[in-house]
Amino acid sequence: xxxxxxxxxxxxxxxLSACTFPQNLLPPTPGLPLPTLTLEELPAATAVVAxxxxxxxxxxxxxxxxxxxxxxxxxxxxxxxxxSPTPFDFPVVIFNTNANCRFGPSRNYNIQTSFLSTRxxxxxxxxxxxxxxxxxxxxxxxxxxxxxxxxxxxxTFLPVISFVPLPEAPSRLTxxxxxxxxxxxxxxxxxxxxxxxxxxxxxxxxxxxxxxxxTNEYIDYPPAAATYFYEIESFNDAGISVRxxxxxxxxx
Length: 252
What we know:
The chain is mostly beta strands. Among the domains are: about 90-150, SH3 type barrels, CATH 2.30.30; about 175-250, Immunoglobulin-like (Sandwich). Helix content is about 5%, strand content about 30%. It has one helix and 13 strands, in the order αβββββββββββββ. It has a four-stranded antiparallel β-sheet, with no helix packed on it. A hairpin with a 5-residue loop joins strand 7 and strand 8.
């Protein structure tokens, strides 16, 4: 056993002696101090220089600039030209006859004033068909018939003037009874209308009575006659309505 160990040790020594080590790398001799290596004895280290990076070109600094919004053009409103009223000369009219000037364009309207023949005034308006003219007068304005003026022309260029309406006309006149005794009596009835201030009742063309508003019947005591002709109309401050009539057979 000891021989084998000694033989192996001898083989190892021979092998080690056969290997050549650099002098500075020989294993230290046991019992001797370790050799101190100076800086000169250290192998120079090869400095590995990293390849120099090519500097990037200076990039423009990014600025967060929003695209400027171009304001939409604001349309300039051109004010419409103010039309000045065209000067208008109202025509002068001369009367060829005496004329009544009324509250409205009809002979059913009450008279406000009158004009004498050859007098003149200014026409400043008309009714729808220009058959009546609205003229200046001492009372302000009133209506004259176009037939009363000298050398009439077409007055359709004048403005149409509104007017106060006449009261509603009674639509019928009815005889409800006739009494033939010592005294004749005729009972009459009509529908009440709107806009009236009263009624005029006629017998044979003569006014027999004025009645208040909202009246719708009357008893007449006429003289004995073969027939009677009654008429009724309403009125207000402006004028009178159309009349409605009824023929009544008298007592035998």
